[in-house]
Design brief:
Elements lengths: L1 H27 L3 H94 L5 H50 L13 H99 L6 H53 L1
C-alpha cells in the first residue's frame, strides 16, 4: 500500500511538471500567427523597396550627367567673370592712381603759387641784411657774458664774506650776553670778577665795531657789483634781442633758398606728373573697352538651374540612402523573424 501510494504521489508531481511545461510552451507560441503576418508584411516591403531602388538609380545617373554639363557651363562663365573682376579691379586701381596724380598736380600748383608769393615777401624783408653785423654782435655777447660771469663770481665771494661777518658779529653779541649773566665759572667753580666781565665786553665791542666797518665796506662793494651786473644784464638783453632779429633774418635767408629749391623741384615734378596723367588716361580707356565685351554673362540663371538639379539629386540620393537603410533593416528583421518562427514551430511540435 505504501509503495502504490508513493507511485501515485510521484505520478501527480510528474503530471504537474508536464502541465507547467506545456503552459510555458503555449505562452511562447501564443504570437506565432502575428509573427507570420509580420514576416509577410516585411517581405512585401522589401520587394517594394528593391523595385523602387531600381527606378531611383537611373534617375540619379541622368541627373549626374546634367549637373556635370551645367557645371562645365558655369566654370566657363566663372572664368570670364574672374577676368571681368580683374579688369574692374585694374580699372579701379588705375582710376585711383589717376585721381591721386591729379590731386597731387593741383596741390603742387597751389604750393608753387604760395612759394612764389613767399619768395617775393622774404626777398623784400632781407634785402638790407648783412651777415658781418651778426658776427660783431656775437663777439660783443661773448665779451659781456665773460665779464658778467667774473662779476657774479666776485659777488658770490663778497656775499659769502658778508655772511661770515654777520655770523661773527652775532657770536660776539652772544658772548657778551652770556658773560653778563655768568656769576660762577662752569670749569673752575670760582666767582667771575666784574673786571673780567668788563674786559671781555670791551674786547667783544671792539670786534663788533670792526665787523660793522668791514660789513659796511663789503656791502658797498656788493651794491656796486650788483649795479654793474644789472647793467651788464640790461646790455645783454638788448644784444640778445638784436641777435634774435639777426638770427631771424638769417633763418629767413636760409628759408628763402629752401623755397627756391622746393619751387624748382615742384616744377620738375609737375612735368613728370603730366606725362603720368596722360598714360593713365589712355590705360583706363583701354580697360573700359575690354569690360564692355563681358556685358552678357547669364551666371545667375545657370546657377539657379544648377541649384534645382542639385536639389533633385539630393532628394533622390536621400531616397536611395533611405531605401538601402530600410532594406538592410528589413533584411535583418526578416532573418530574426524567420529564426523566431522556426523556433516557435519547434516548440509547437513539442507541445503536441
Amino acid at each position: 500500500i505504501d509503495k502504490y501510494k508513493r507511485v501515485r504521489e510521484n505520478s501527480k508531481l510528474f503530471l504537474n511538471y508536464l502541465k507547467q511545461k506545456r503552459k510555458g510552451y503555449e505562452g511562447q507560441v501564443l504570437d506565432l500567427d502575428d509573427k507570420k503576418l509580420q514576416f509577410k508584411v516585411k517581405k512585401d516591403n522589401l520587394s517594394y523597396l528593391n523595385l523602387r531602388l531600381t527606378e531611383i538609380i537611373p534617375e540619379i545617373t541622368k541627373l549626374n550627367n546634367l549637373i556635370k554639363d551645367k557645371r562645365n557651363e558655369i566654370e566657363i562663365i566663372d572664368n570670364k567673370i574672374k577676368i571681368l573682376e580683374e579688369l574692374k579691379n585694374d580699372l579701379n586701381l588705375n582710376e585711383l592712381k589717376l585721381k591721386n596724380l591729379v590731386e597731387k598736380r593741383d596741390r603742387n600748383l597751389k604750393e608753387i603759387e604760395y612759394l612764389v608769393s613767399s619768395i617775393n615777401v622774404l626777398d623784400n624783408e632781407i634785402k638790407d641784411f648783412k651777415l658781418d653785423d651778426l658776427e660783431v654782435i656775437s663777439n660783443e655777447l661773448k665779451n659781456l657774458n665773460d665779464k658778467l660771469s667774473k662779476y657774479e663770481e666776485e659777488l658770490l665771494l663778497i656775499t659769502k664774506k658778508i655772511n661770515e661777518l654777520e655770523v661773527k658779529k652775532q657770536s660776539s653779541f652772544e658772548i657778551k650776553s652770556k658773560i653778563n649773566v655768568l656769576d660762577v665759572c662752569p670749569l673752575c667753580k670760582q666767582n667771575v670778577a666784574h673786571s673780567h666781565k668788563s674786559s671781555i665786553n670791551t674786547e667783544e665791542d671792539n670786534k663788533i665795531l670792526n665787523y660793522e666797518k668791514e660789513l659796511m665796506i663789503n656791502k658797498d662793494k656788493k651794491s656796486s657789483l650788483q649795479q654793474s651786473i644789472n647793467d651788464f644784464k640790461f646790455k645783454l638783453d638788448k644784444l640778445k634781442e638784436k641777435k634774435s632779429n639777426f638770427d631771424l633774418f638769417k633763418f629767413k635767408k636760409d628759408n628763402l633758398k629752401e623755397k627756391f629749391d622746393k619751387k624748382d623741384l615742384l616744377l620738375n615734378e609737375q612735368s613728370i606728373l603730366v606725362g603720368e596723367i596722360n598714360y593713365y588716361h589712355d590705360k583706363i580707356k583701354g580697360i573700359s573697352s575690354r569690360i564692355i565685351e563681358f556685358k552678357d554673362l547669364n551666371h545667375e540663371k545657370l546657377k539657379k538651374e544648377l541649384d534645382e538639379l542639385l536639389h533633385k539629386e539630393r532628394k533622390f540620393e536621400i531616397e536611395q540612402a533611405t531605401c538601402l537603410s530600410n532594406i538592410n533593416e528589413i533584411s535583418t528583421t526578416l532573418n530574426d523573424l524567420e529564426k523566431e518562427i522556426n523556433l516557435k514551430l519547434n516548440i509547437k511540435n513539442k507541445i503536441t
